[in-house]
Amino acid sequence: MQQVRRQPRIGVLAVQGDVREHLRSLAAAGADAIAVRRPAEVAEIDALVLPGGESTTIDKLLRIFELRDPIRERITAGMPAYGSCAGMILLADSILDGTHDQQTLGGMRITVRRNAFGRQVDSFECDLPMPAVGEEPVHAVFIRAPWVEEVGDTVEVLARVPEGHGLASGHPVAVRQGNLLATSFHPEVTGDERVHAYFVEMVQAALAAGSAA
Question: Is 188 a catalytic residue?
């Protein structure tokens, strides 16, 4: 008999950012999506989305609400996580242009440049080839976004900014390392759920393998 995959419970960190939009996109992609605000809720989820916002503020709120350590422990233990924009910064092991006291959750062997699209090449939109989610390009919205400066040898680059976009051209803006996914852009604001569907598939695969427990 074929085993029926259960609906994954995916949390969205709800201290700042596009929480409602991520919840909607995850639900449309087939997940049981819940807002996560308390440490006890971290233990109840199969995966976590870290939304955009202001990375230094989210970092401080994680510590104030005692969420930082439980989330780090779950990620280290193999829980899938997806970070968009500021969420990418939170998943990065290294930051360029961060504040002196800024901390990350870490886990991804990437170095990101904070506010790269805000300070260097104004926020913008473009059609971004991302074969992992389908043949049609993803319409990517970058809002004071980071980009990836360096990737480790275990990191897969899923998308780069196409040529013709000045300083941004060629920089990775979607990356994956095992159960961790990060994008510089905000797929939750465009109505295209393919990135979220890709993440839901990652979570289902992790559950099947027993690594999201």
Answer: yes
| Catalytic choice (21, 22, 85, 193) | 85
Tell me whether residue 186 is one of the annotated catalytic residues.
yes
Least confident of 48-57, 63-72, 92-101, 172-181: 92-101
Determine the average pLDDT of the residues in 111-133: 81
- The β-bridge partners of 10 are 33, 47
* Contact in structure between 148 and 175 (CB atoms under 8 Å): yes
Distance in angstroms (rounded) separating the CA atoms of residues 52 and 185: 9
Active-site option among 22, 188, 193, 196: 188
Output the DSSP codes for 141-201.
Answer: EESS--EEEEE-TTPEEEEEPPTTSGGGTT-EEEEEETTEEEESS-GGGTT--HHHHHHHH
Compute the Cα dihedral for 120, 123, 125, 128 and give only its sign. Answer: positive
Q: Which residues contact 118 (CB under 8 A, 6 or more apart)?
A: 143, 144, 145
Tens digits of residue pLDDT in 145-204? 889 999 999 999 999 999 987 778 899 999 999 999 999 999 999 999 999 999 999 999
100 is catalytic: no
